[in-house]
Amino acid sequence: MNVSHSDKQQLIVIGNGMVGHHLVEQLIERGATEAYRIIVFGEERHLAYDRVHLSEYFAGRDAESLALCASDYYAEHGIELRLSEAVTEIDRDNGEVVTDQGRYSYDRLVLATGSYPFVPPIPGNDRPNCLVYRTLEDLDAIRAAAEKATTGVVVGGGLLGLEAANALRGLNLDTAVVEFAPRLMPMQVDSEGGELLREKIESLGVQVLTERATQRIEDGEASFHRMVFQDDKVLETDLIVFSAGIRPRDELARDSGLEMGERGGVVVDDHCLTSDPTILAVGEVALWNNSIFGLVGPGYQMAKAAADTLTQGELTFRGADMSTKLKLLGVDVGSIGDAHGDRSPGARMFRYLDQIKQEYRKLVVSSDGKKLLGAMLVGDNSYYDTLMQYYSNGLELPADPASLILPSTEGAPTLGADALPETATICSCHNVTKGDVCASIDTGATDLGAVKAETKASTGCGGCAALLKSVVDHELESRGVEVDKSICEHFAYTRQELYGIVRVEGIKTFSELIKKHGRGLGCDICKPAVASILASCFNEPITDASHIPLQDTNDTFMANMQKNGTYSVVPRVPGGEITPDKLIALGEVGKKYGLYTKITGGQRIDLFGAQLHDLPDIWQELIDAGFETGHAYGKATRTVKSCVGSTWCRYGVQDSVSMALHVENRYKGLRSPHKLKFAVSGCTRECAEAQSKDVGVIATENGWNLYVCGNGGMRPRHAELFATDLDDETLIQYIDRFLMFYIRTADRLQRTSVWRENLDGGLDYLKDVIIHDSLGIADELEKQMQDVVDRYECEWANALKDPEKLKRFRSYVNDDRPDPNIIVTEERGQLRPA
Amino acid sequence: MSTATALKTETEADVSWQTLCTKNDLVAFSGVAAWIETAEGPAQVALFYLPTGPNTPGLPGHETELYAIDHHDPFSKANVIARGIVGDLKGQPVVASPIYKQHFRLKDGVCLEDESVQLRTWPVRFEGDEVWIKA
């Protein structure tokens, strides 16, 4: 660009927090860098970071991963970012801001200075190890102090206080929360909800003290501090974190004479303009309609309005909804609108309390029972989205509003997509309305994936996934689009339907299936999918003549093709337990055939670089040494990872290795829509990482806890606790049913994690089917699994016995010379592709 | 990605039919690899055998049983085409590369995902139980 600086106005933004950063993003989006030269001041040394997820800093996230943009983002857009430089004065007469490094003139100025944590005026609040929880530097200080501490107290039981308590707990401190009000989160929940919240939080080992006003803090006897309360009761602790609310950082505005609120905050109008029209304010420093908005959502809305004001746009800030859903210390808390019902005269309420499951829900409705005015949720936020739709769109409630908060075996009732107006917000993370979804369909999106890609809906927290799907399906249907779920052009069926056909008709070959129910020759989509279905049902050797043309190369040659056309070989090492003799045998094979060897993540050994014609010889030696095929090449049971368990470990409570061997030997050779990974941990320390597996088993004092549908890899998903304290037999029974139900109902190449996310009715439905046998198919699933188990045979042992099958392992049918294209080089004492 | 036929004009004298292997070496509805001698030197060929018959899946109007196509995958630069899955797309017999899954038409070697890429193909036929190729 050839525009000289003098052509541009100078825009200064004070503050580089979440809202300040969002403002810059919005300005860039509006092309404001054409009109303004922008300078941003941040007093912290870090680039704007995600304060909402601050507690993850202790869980291993660093400043860089919390950062809201790449380090060169500002420079890339020609914006000057001056970090570690605090503004000390606004000189309105000269249109300048002053820092300790100089004076900078402005044409327009935005205050995004945010807030600071309020520390109650308690004598002793300035003692060492009395800290606050707001910035990364605060967190560094807390972490440093925690190293010499065993106990910690958070003063303040609101949203941020509970966040801070979670952080202290994460630092292995014995943690207590001290709250002045009679309950936790007094802003969001009522006394019933607060009581439930207390129970849940106390069950996590966090002590909760309410109605406690701290009088003074002094030297402790057993600990560093002693807190003395109003009734002279005391509490000793090593570390205190104050989290008793926020106050706007408005001193720059105050000193420069801008109009202020009575209790602080810079007064702004709908355009986010202050009493000086050259100066704007956004976020927690700004006072709109006598309110400070202490959530990031409203701050972002102010940033958008301010960006529009600065670029002659029309968007204004007209207040913001403070509805919120949170997970604090693992406990769901949701609050919508007038959750207490104290702002709406004549309001009526519905309440539901389940003290066994520890759930509480409340509806506040208009006096005629037709409109939702507010709602409160503790323990289960799955009701939030539907209630939010009723609230924010003013929809008429069903005849019996209580049905919206009553538990239902089919999960929370979902609002019909057609009942929503165009303005209904579907995705609140990315502010996508039903109208936006419709528009993307009208301009060519023909499926859920395309709508997500275009609108970003459901790509934030994902909480709206079910709602979005129902809106997309409904809209497509109403436009007469038939959603084609055919697996490919050869079969007008889904994988699930093909599975049903194969089972019902007992079809055992691909050629019979395509003759009867398809057309053409098949392709690389339907052939492996059908091969997998046939294997799941009948478990015949995949190298049989009728099955071999269906397999991907990896299954055909029972090895994993690598990028240069060679294969890698992974023998099964059940549970990761291996004898020294077997280790030696693996070493000898690796050496003899010049294979690169590497330990896998599944506690096995991968031997790379085998040429096609070497595979049978390699496997003959492995089988002679007692190995079986590991199915690393198949969409099949891969590994059961285990820790050493109670036989060796001083913490182990069950014999995890024996269980892992049992599980692996039971399910080895099972083919499924995608690969299956398992793990068994011998105690709650979870060294086998079972919570990242399709099926995870964790030992308890009383048996085993079963987790399902976890995943590592590209899209990690924490497995969900499915059943607790199972005996060996029930554990296997549930896994049998679970796996067969997955095989029966999943799409091709759909891992259990994605399958679970798409399963209507969610985890509760899955539990009903597997545990309570709600479909009456449990016996059938178990029997089908037992058939597969009974028919297991090592595929390599089978192939080695059959000269016809071995013929397939020739690199060339008319010549014995190796492939001259495969060239290797040596690195760190091993061979690798050149 | 030079896989096009050599520019040299082929004459009858340069090319000839040669025997490759027997029917027994082939795998129905799948591929095997073989070495051939061409005018430009040795080459690796992938042979695909799609038998027709009353009890086999088939394509309407599709008679050819045997195809010979370059074994070299220009995308991965590995010799692997014979190990791909064969099938048909829009009525045309194809093989999918086992590495990055591009589809090549068996008839003329054209890549369906990038028509500027074409594998060599050779005429091939059965003589009794023997497989003959013209290269």
Q: Report helical residue fraction of chain A.
A: 25-40%
Name the strands of the widest sheet of chain A in spatial order.
3-2-1-7-19
Task: Count up the domains of chain A.
Answer: 5
* Helix-strand string of chain B: EEEEEEEEEEEE
CATH class of chain B: Mainly Beta
Q: Write down the overall mean pLDDT of chain B.
A: 84
Percentage beta strand of chain A: 15-25%
Any idea what the CATH superfamily of chain B is called?
Answer: Rieske [2Fe-2S] iron-sulphur domain
Strand tally of chain A: 38
Count of discrete domains of chain B: 1
Q: What is the annotated CATH architecture of the largest domain in chain A?
A: 2-Layer Sandwich
The mean pLDDT of chain A is 90
Tally of alpha and pi helices of chain A: 25
CATH superfamily of the largest domain in chain A: Sulfite Reductase Hemoprotein, domain 1
CATH uppermost class of the largest domain in chain A: Alpha Beta
Helix count of chain B, per DSSP? 0
Coarse morphology of chain B: globular
Concise description?
Chain A is of the alpha/beta class and 834 residues long. Chain A starts with 8 loop residues before the first strand and ends with a strand. Residues 1-14 of chain B have low confidence and may be disordered.
Map the helices and strands.
The complex is a heterodimer of chains A (834) and B (135).
Chain A: E1 9-14, H1 18-29, E2 36-42, H2 63-66, H3 73-76, E3 80-83, E4 87-91, E5 96-99, E6 102-105, E7 108-111, E8 115-117, E9 130-132, H4 136-146, E10 151-155, H5 159-170, E11 174-178, H6 191-202, E12 207-209, E13 214-219, E14 225-229, E15 234-237, E16 239-242, E17 246-248, H7 251-255, E18 266-268, E19 279-281, E20 286-288, H8 296-310, E21 324-328, E22 331-337, E23 348-354, E24 359-365, E25 372-378, H9 384-393, E26 425-427, E27 432-433, H10 434-442, H11 448-455, H12 465-478, H13 495-505, H14 510-517, H15 526-538, H16 553-557, E28 560-561, E29 567-569, H17 580-592, E30 596-599, E31 605-610, H18 615-624, E32 637-642, H19 656-667, E33 676-681, E34 695-700, E35 703-708, E36 720-726, H20 728-745, H21 752-758, H22 762-770, H23 778-790, H24 795-800, H25 803-806, E37 824-827, E38 830-833
Parallel strand pairs in A: 1-2, 1-7, 2-3, 7-19, 9-16, 10-11, 10-16, 11-12, 18-20, 32-33, 33-34
Antiparallel strand pairs in A: 4-5, 5-6, 8-17, 13-14, 14-15, 21-22, 22-25, 23-24, 24-25, 26-27, 28-29, 29-31, 30-31, 34-35, 35-36, 37-38
Chain B: E1 17-22, E2 30-38, E3 41-49, E4 66-70, E5 72-73, E6 78-79, E7 85-89, E8 92-96, E9 103-105, E10 121-122, E11 124-127, E12 130-134
Antiparallel strand pairs in B: 1-12, 2-3, 3-4, 4-10, 5-6, 7-8, 8-9, 11-12
